[in-house]
């Protein structure tokens, strides 16, 4: 790391007042850091050797293949090869023997929790090809799974049985960008980070950001209504997506790729595809309004002694930082242990604290922003709402601090697996779910430092600014006993506080049976109506939430 | 007006540099002001005596009453009286003789352009009552028109024949507000301004604002997906509305009144009601996320010599004012003439200019905002992009400047009527539509200063920040010849530049035949599918866009 030089200038006064520590990269040998590292034995934190996941059909034996779906034949494969070409556009394990490696990236998810039996992957290169593929599949009762970067967290983008994977990776062009309005049009397969880097050069920013940005596809982001790190500032995709091109199972191209900020001409049908999780159609292109990129970005990483004080920190940040607040992320101590152990990195603060938060500001005038942030930090530290903190002073430090938050998701899966719950909970109750779950897991004797215990830790983090908690149970291996403690306990807990069992990850396979905890019978009935309207044969992403 | 004291302090320097005029309220006798007032003869600007509008059935003789709909009988009226009570909840012109005045506010629109033959107005007091009313109407094939504040601009909220009006005015409670998250839940009949004033006391702001705020109902705003003055900053209702309660024609209550910022559990069906214009169901309650109210608000009113310079002004405002820019409104000289003549008020600037813009900033730190605005104004004035300007220095002046923009809509209808087009056009082409339309109207000999000419003026204004133009043709009386020049000319013009024939007002009756200029056959077909799914009998707001 390049950053050893101490404080960002605006914070010198806070430093002089003894309120704020410098950005510290050299304290590994300090007592605090040693104490920190000793909280976990080397053995318990040994990374698991990647193994193939269990088949979903073994984990969920109650799910039966729908006999109405056809088996894929040689003739089907020939049709697709003729349509798409024999090259990389068709990965055929039906008429040929493929190495497991060829199909595995499409059959399994990165958490090694779901694994399908797919033997045919199609990579159409255009909307017209998607249309022909889907029409053929619909006419022949072949089930399909639309797939982008396959970075989902609920098993929504991988097959269960032998569904055909339709992957968007060959549809990866940036179609257009208007530098006055900020409206970007992209193919579904454009990687989020590629789009954001393209926009950075134009002085704009993609209104969505998330940990998997280097792999996830924008089509998949929109299909799952991804929330992410910038929602607090730039709102949800339901507001920022202006147009969608999608293909229905019968091959109909929904040509709703509007490039206008406002278009009030009839039902906003594109919204059904945002968060539809590929169950009624497949998104092939997206038009989205992108905000101006802020020239001034500050990131502070703060230690807070209690969840009560964390709520006060959030309220103060909202009031004092106002229009420049662009992220308020919560992390508990356990999540930070996992990150730093998985990455082999050092925590940014010497002091251990039960809670941390990452605050980002983005604005157009760095002097103004620095002044606002300085005043805010002085205030919360002098009033002892925040106990310690650092502020990044360059891009490297900003990245480093963000990695403490963005690295959590991957770190929790590092030792074998992870049970993930992505939930919305009214703010005052938000962290209580983590405490209650930890208690349940401990009471069941499932958590410990050695290999005999399946659970490493129960941690909580997330987009506090959006009342969105990620409850993660990091495990050494998947274990039915853990699942039995967690479910339906977690869902019942959430239903009691009128939360949502999926804030931003979607339902996929993981939560298909639990939608009733967040939606009424009436709403589920109305959703089924929509599913039947658009996909009467049920070929789109079957066995998932609809 | 209380404001005579000159400049806001931040702008003293610009003033010293001779760049900026003071806020002027005393120049009525100046040469400029006299020249301004002389542009219109008293006769041509005499307000028309309000007369009853023509019946829509006379203006649109091609629309035939659907014979499948039942006639309202005594028995129907009795049922509703029993259900809702005999008081003000049922206005019955079926079994009794009513004065024209009793029914007129529900039968006609404020532009005096549409007028129906409704003889029964129902005002349910709860969602359950709406459910019973709709179920009864559906079972008995009685057509209905949901109606809020009846401030719409496309004839969507008034009946054509004898449809029953279901008015939301008795459902007017603020249900709840969460002071941490900013989530507000209201009945559909809450007046927008009432909600905003309630929020102001809590330090929050309603994310929507529009000229009709004193009368319009939030249910109607959401049903028409109103855009308004704050969209540039706070986004569209598709993003800010978190939940909706609505009733389908069969009486089903769509209970999707989520109070969570994020809820990713299935198809986002509520979106269909946002902009659905009451054609598939009736909204009875809304949950919406409200931003923090900015403590510092500045408003500047600037004169700009050409549309080309106006575009540069907009780009500079976007870049230099960044996150604090909360409105950028365009007004042409003609629109300002209409406002000041209708209101009998004085223009804020002495100098006449072909274009004006109103810029609003909202932020949390007035020193910072003032500095940004000052720097911006100095920059655009010293580079002669902007030729003159004033900045409001107190609430009264802010209101006064805003009235130059907000007063236009009413002013254009002041002399007898107005043809209104609310369109989205790529920014570079935006104002050209006004020039081209004016030319067409003039070439047809329809525009002049005396009563024999139907057209007073062709003016343009709107939410330039959203590429949203309001083209208004102010008339002394409605005249088929004017209409024939305007349509389909305007729609064809817009289709050519891939704009939208309705940016924010909706389609209603006015644009029912023109949706094809902005939507493909496929999209219209898909919309009809949705209409048939939810309203198979077609009783919801018939004869309108679907």
TrEMBL record, chains A, B:
Its cofactor is FAD. It catalyses: (R)-malate + A = oxaloacetate + AH2; (R)-lactate + 2 Fe(III)-[cytochrome c] = 2 Fe(II)-[cytochrome c] + pyruvate + 2 H(+). The lineage of its organism: Eukaryota, Fungi, Dikarya, Ascomycota, Pezizomycotina. GO terms for molecular function: (R)-2-hydroxyglutarate dehydrogenase activity; D-lactate dehydrogenase (cytochrome) activity; FAD binding; metal ion binding. It is an enzyme of class 1 (oxidoreductase). Coiled coil: none annotated. Belongs to the FAD-binding oxidoreductase/transferase type 4 family. Catalyzes the oxidation of D-2-hydroxyglutarate (D-2-HG) to alpha-ketoglutarate. Also catalyzes the oxidation of other D-2-hydroxyacids, such as D-malate (D-MAL) and D-lactate (D-LAC). Exhibits high activities towards D-2-HG and D-MAL but a very weak activity towards D-LAC. Keywords: FAD, Flavoprotein, Metal-binding, Mitochondrion, Oxidoreductase, Transit peptide, Zinc. Its EC number is 1.1.99.39. It is found in: Mitochondrion. The keyword Acetylation does not apply. Residues 114-293 form the FAD-binding PCMH-type domain. GO terms for cellular component: mitochondrion. It holds the Pfam family FAD_binding_4. One of its GO terms (biological process) is malate metabolic process. This is D-2-hydroxyglutarate dehydrogenase, mitochondrial. SUPFAM superfamilies: FAD-binding/transporter-associated domain-like, FAD-linked oxidases, C-terminal domain.
């Amino acid at each position: 790391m390049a950053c050893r030089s101490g404080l960002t200038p605006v914070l010198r006064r806070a430093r002089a007042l003894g309120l704020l520590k410098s950005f510290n990269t050299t304290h590994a040998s300090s007592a605090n850091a040693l104490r920190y590292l000793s909280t976990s034995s080397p053995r318990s934190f040994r990374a698991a050797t990647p193994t193939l996941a269990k088949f979903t059909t073994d984990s969920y034996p109650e799910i039966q293949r729908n006999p109405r779906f056809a088996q894929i034949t040689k003739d089907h494969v020939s049709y697709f090869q003729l349509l798409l070409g024999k090259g990389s556009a068709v990965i055929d394990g039906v008429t040929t023997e493929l190495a497991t490696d060829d199909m595995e990236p499409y059959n399994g998810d990165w958490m090694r929790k779901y694994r399908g039996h797919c033997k045919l992957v199609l990579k159409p290169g255009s909307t017209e090809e998607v249309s022909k593929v889907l029409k053929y599949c619909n006419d022949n009762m072949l089930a399909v799974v639309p797939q982008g970067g396959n970075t989902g967290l609920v098993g929504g983008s991988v097959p269960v049985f032998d569904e055909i994977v339709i992957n968007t990776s060959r549809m990866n062009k940036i179609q257009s960008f208007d530098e006055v309005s900020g409206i970007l049009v992209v193919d579904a397969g454009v990687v989020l980070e590629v789009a954001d880097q393209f926009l950075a050069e134009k002085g704009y920013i993609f209104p969505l950001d998330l940990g998997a940005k280097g792999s996830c596809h924008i089509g998949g982001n929109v299909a799952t209504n991804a929330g992410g790190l910038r929602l607090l500032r730039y709102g949800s995709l339901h507001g920022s997506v202006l147009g969608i091109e999608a293909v229905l199972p019968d091959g109909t191209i929904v040509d709703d790729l509007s490039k206008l900020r406002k278009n009030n001409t009839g039902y906003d049908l594109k919204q059904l595809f945002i968060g539809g999780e590929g169950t009624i159609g497949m998104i092939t292109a997206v038009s989205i309004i992108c905000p101006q990129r802020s020239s001034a970005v500050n990131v502070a990483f703060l230690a807070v002694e209690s969840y009560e004080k964390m709520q006060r920190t959030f309220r103060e940040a909202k009031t004092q930082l106002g229009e420049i607040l662009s992220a308020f992320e919560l992390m508990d101590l356990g999540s930070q242990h996992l990150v730093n152990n998985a990455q082999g990195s050092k925590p940014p603060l010497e002091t251990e604290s039960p809670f941390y938060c990452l605050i980002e500001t983005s604005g157009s005038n760095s002097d103004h922003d620095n002044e606002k942030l300085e005043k805010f930090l002085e205030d919360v530290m002098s009033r002892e709402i925040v106990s310690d903190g650092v502020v990044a002073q360059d891009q490297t430090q900003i990245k480093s601090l963000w990695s403490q938050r963005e690295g959590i998701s991957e770190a929790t899966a590092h030792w074998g697996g992870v049970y993930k719950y992505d939930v919305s909970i009214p703010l005052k109750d938000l962290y209580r779910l983590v405490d209650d779950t930890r208690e349940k897991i401990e009471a069941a004797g499932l958590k410990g430092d050695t290999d005999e215990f399946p659970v490493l830790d129960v941690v909580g983090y997330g987009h506090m600014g959006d009342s969105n908690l990620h409850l993660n149970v990091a495990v050494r291996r998947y274990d039915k006993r853990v699942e039995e403690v967690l479910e339906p306990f977690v869902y019942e807990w959430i239903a009691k506080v009128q939360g949502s069992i999926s804030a931003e990850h979607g339902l996929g396979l993981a939560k298909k049976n639990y939608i009733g905890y967040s939606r009424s019978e009436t709403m589920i009935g109305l959703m089924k109506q929509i599913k039947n309207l658009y996909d009467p044969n049920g070929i789109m992403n079957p066995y998932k939430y609809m």
